[in-house]
């Protein structure tokens, strides 16, 4: 059965990251501007933090999910059905686009909420520290912008690596499910010596296409699944392959 090579897949993930990391870093910076405006108008640090908006970050994540998941769904479908069916018809692609769009409103919502809450924590901590130091409002606002800008890229890297792998594996699973073939999925670790012990232990584990992998103390439909504990999905680059049902 045709398969994707690990090297080709990692190269695609790297390309996706190069595309979306700058966008997400910019969105993280923009997300604090309403909070800064509120603080400049007299809001307390806690109240100002509540003004952090998820609009910009949500827009980038939706673009990421739609791009990566749909690309990988089509790639998996075409690979698994090579020589058996025509390329994925437009109706399938439309369905994948809809699923990717809904992803952020469903399980992906937990990710967006977590990002927003962490940003709110940064806003609150920086402004409270500025008050303790007796900084003026303009100086506190300047310090907050500098802090957020300084950490935006590293945060964007961590988020993109996690969410790109998750959406890649989700899309791949959609593509496999759409083939109608009698397949099961199999966990595949990165083989680079950096995989978590729980992911090394999961390597080779098989599950029905609609089933779950057992990973550490969690269960997920694919590597990077938002249903997994954060410690089992953050920065994960494992994937799944597909094999005939035993």
TrEMBL record:
Top-rank taxon: Bacteria
Pfam annotation, one family: Phage_Mu_F
Limits of the Phage head morphogenesis domain: 123-240
Annotated protein name in UniProt: Phage Mu protein F like protein
């Amino acid at each position: 059965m045709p398969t994707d090579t690990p090297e080709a897949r990692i190269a695609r993930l790297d390309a996706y990251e190069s595309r979306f990391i700058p966008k997400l870093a910019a969105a993280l910076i923009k997300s604090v501007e309403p909070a800064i405006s509120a603080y400049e108008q007299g809001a307390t640090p806690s109240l100002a933090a509540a003004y952090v908006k998820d609009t910009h970050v949500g827009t980038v994540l939706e673009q990421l999910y739609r791009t990566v998941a749909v690309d990988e769904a089509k790639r998996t479908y075409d690979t698994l059905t090579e020589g058996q069916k025509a390329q994925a018809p437009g109706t399938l692609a439309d369905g994948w686009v809809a699923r990717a769009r809904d992803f952020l409103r469903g399980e992906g919502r937990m990710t967006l909420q977590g990002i927003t809450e962490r940003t709110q924590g940064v806003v609150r901590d920086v402004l409270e520290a500025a008050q303790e130091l007796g900084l003026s409002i303009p100086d506190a606002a300047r310090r907050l912008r500098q802090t957020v800008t300084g950490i935006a890229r590293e945060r964007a890297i961590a988020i993109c690596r996690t969410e790109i792998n998750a959406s890649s594996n989700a899309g791949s699973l959609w593509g496999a499910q759409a083939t109608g073939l009698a397949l099961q999925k199999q966990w595949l670790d990165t083989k680079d010596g950096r995989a978590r012990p729980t992911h090394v232990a999961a390597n080779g584990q098989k599950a029905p296409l609609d089933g779950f992998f057992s990973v550490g103390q969690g269960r997920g439909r694919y590597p990077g699944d938002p249903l997994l504990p954060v410690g089992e999905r953050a920065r994960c680059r494992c994937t799944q392959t597909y094999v005939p049902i035993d």
